[in-house]
Specification:
Structural class: alpha/beta
Helix content: 40-55%
Distance between the termini: 29 Å
Shape: globular
CATH architecture of the largest domain: Alpha-Beta Barrel
Order of helices and strands: EHEHHEHEHHEHEHHEHEHHHHHHHH
Largest sheet: 8 strands, parallel
Number of domains: 2
Oligomer: single chain
CATH class of the largest domain: Alpha Beta
CATH topology of the largest domain: TIM Barrel
Length: 416
């Protein structure tokens, strides 16, 4: 079972992708951005490997204007070396990658121009995954599209346009049930008829069910019939609904107790988590499903979270410290429940300054006089309400980088 997350990596230094506007999309600028984004992807893959995350959805925006005639660069050839180096890591560590075009890539639109752009976008995604030297098991996920007042006609149009696609695109394309128009019953029928692998999305099925008497396992097993050996291990999308928000909204983080019960009910599949805290939940899930459970893994996680927890809730900070003193147990669900509890608590001025002071303690004996004065002035400005805590964190992060403090650089404290 591979656990993955989508597109963005949170709380990890130097993992931000860049893009540009149409006005600034000159060939020279695009080359700079593509190089930056591929280097960033390389760092993200390194991070994922180090955390045991072996599934990752790559952002469609990694090549700015990748499917537009604005970008006519032979980027897959220009950056062949960069692609190959990433490809070697993916193969060596058995990492599976995928992509998911956005809502404007609609293959069943009655507007021929929209369909033309959709095909161009699918061509771009296929080109990117091919540049990474990936097998057919690296997939492109697509929704069926709109209903346009006649669902049967819309499905027929999708099927017709699907069969006009190149074989390279069809080899990678998989389809997913959505929460507005096409339930899992619709998508399974399309997939079985046209030999297209189906991705089951549990939250979409809760919002737009086909048969409420059937459970997740039932639909996952049905979807499995659409997958072949060349398609790789069947994959699904998993998410939990956000409380007090519109139906279908993803939760901020994964509740491990709920996720653990879900895992007990399903067969072995690859799981793409769709959750707002991205890799943070993926790490939680990896630690839950690991066959080599060690208290040291929770201690590594604690090192990243500890100053965030101290900032939000010092009482929970002490609870977690006591929890981790038992080196024989593996209290994973309790550990993450306490972290979620703390992060749901609003920091006070006192707890915010206290956490910042603990981080500042790493520098007070090495900082210059100018840096000491600057830190003191930032704290005073924060107390007066003229500076935000983000200004203080920004300064402390710069000091961590300047003084090569890797322990702090990898802390989540600076990032959320």
């Amino acid at each position: 079972m591979k656990i993955g997350y989508a597109c963005l990596t949170l709380g990890v230094y130097n993992t931000t992708f860049k893009t540009c506007t149409l006005k600034t999309a000159t060939p020279d600028h695009l080359l700079i951005l593509i190089k930056h984004n591929l280097d960033t992807l390389d760092r993200i893959i390194d991070y994922n490997i180090s955390m045991g995350i072996t599934h990752f959805r790559i952002s469609s925006d990694i090549i700015p204007f990748g499917s537009s005639p604005i970008n006519d660069l032979n980027w897959d050839d220009i950056f062949k070396r960069e692609f190959h180096l990433i490809a070697e890591k993916l193969k060596a560590h058995n990492v599976r990658v995928s992509m998911h075009p956005g809502q404007y890539t609609v293959l069943n639109s009655p507007n021929e121009e929209v369909v033309k752009r959709a095909v161009e976008d699918l061509t771009y995604h296929t080109r990117f995954l091919s540049a990474l030297e990936t097998a057919k098991s690296s997939k492109i996920i697509l929704h069926i599209g709109g209903v346009y007042g006649d669902k049967e006609a819309a499905i027929t149009r999708f099927e017709k346009n699907y069969h006009l696609l190149s074989q390279g695109i069809k080899d990678r394309l998989i389809i997913e049930n959505d929460d507005k128009s096409y339930n899992i019953g619709d998508v399974l029928a399309i997939g079985l008829t046209n030999h297209i692998p189906v991705v089951y999305d549990n939250l979409h099925n809760q919002v737009l069910p086909f048969d409420v008497a059937k459970d997740d396992r039932y639909y996952i097993l049905l979807a499995n019939k659409t997958w072949t050996a060349e398609d790789g291990v069947q994959k699904i999308h998993y998410s939990q609904g956000a409380k007090l928000k519109r139906a279908g909204s993803h939760s901020k983080t994964i509740d491990l107790e709920i996720f653990n019960e879900f895992l007990k009910s399903i067969p072995d599949v690859d799981i793409m988590l769709e959750v707002k805290d991205k890799n943070l939940s993926a790490v939680k899930a990896v630690n839950l499903t690991s066959n080599d459970k060690k208290i040291s893994d929770l201690e590594k996680e604690w090192a990243k979270y500890k100053y965030n927890i101290l900032e939000h809730n010092p009482n929970v900070y002490e609870e977690i410290r006591m929890l981790l003193k038992d080196k024989v147990s593996y209290p994973l669900i309790e550990f993450y429940a306490l972290i979620d509890q703390a992060l749901a608590t609003e920091p006070t001025e006192g707890t915010t300054i206290n956490a910042a002071s603990h981080v500042w303690g790493y520098f007070k004996n090495v900082a210059t006089e100018k840096e000491r004065k600057k830190y003191a002035s930032y704290i005073e400005s924060f107390k007066k309400g003229t500076y935000s805590i983000n200004a203080i964190k920004g300064m402390l992060l710069k000091l961590a980088i300047k003084y090569n403090n890797d322990y702090l650089i990898t802390s989540y404290y600076f990032y959320f």
